[in-house]
Specification:
Distance between the termini: 26 Å
Strand order of the largest sheet: 1-4-3-2
Radius of gyration: 15 Å
Number of helices: 2
Number of strands: 8
Helix content: 10-25%
Strand content: 25-35%
Shape: globular
Structural class: alpha/beta
Length: 121
């Protein structure tokens, strides 16, 4: 029996800002259920959904050690287009035939775009 990763939870105090960020830059759609404090960001096509969960008091945004990695074929092009829309990635790094770049979402969670999934092995 196998299990497929279907959802990733991000704990944040900035639910609306984080939802807007992932919808704007990564093409997710927002799903809100009545009487549910969790906001689900639904992936378009293949990929995992993101659940935005209110951060417990006493915790700070960005404290959870998780990085979301988004697969893109052309990291440089994606970063360039994102910057025109307001999201600045750091330097593009190259390793073992692929490239990647890092940024933060509005709740200070680490994110990355990477072409690793497209490397021919």
């Amino acid at each position: 029996m196998t299990a497929q990763l279907g959802r990733i939870i991000i704990y944040t105090k900035k639910i609306e800002e984080v939802a807007e960020f992932y919808c704007k830059y990564f093409g997710f759609e927002t799903l809100r259920l009545d009487d549910d404090r969790i906001v689900e960001l639904v992936a378009q096509g293949t990929g995992s959904n993101i659940l935005l969960h209110p951060l417990a008091s006493g915790r700070k945004d960005g404290q959870t050690l998780v990085k979301l990695v988004f697969d893109v074929e052309d990291v440089e092009e994606f970063c360039s287009l994102s910057e025109k829309r307001g999201l600045k990635f750091g330097s593009i790094h190259r390793a073992d035939g692929y490239s990647f770049a890092n940024a933060k979402d509005p709740a200070k969670n680490s994110i990355s775009v990477s072409s690793r999934a497209f490397v021919k092995r």
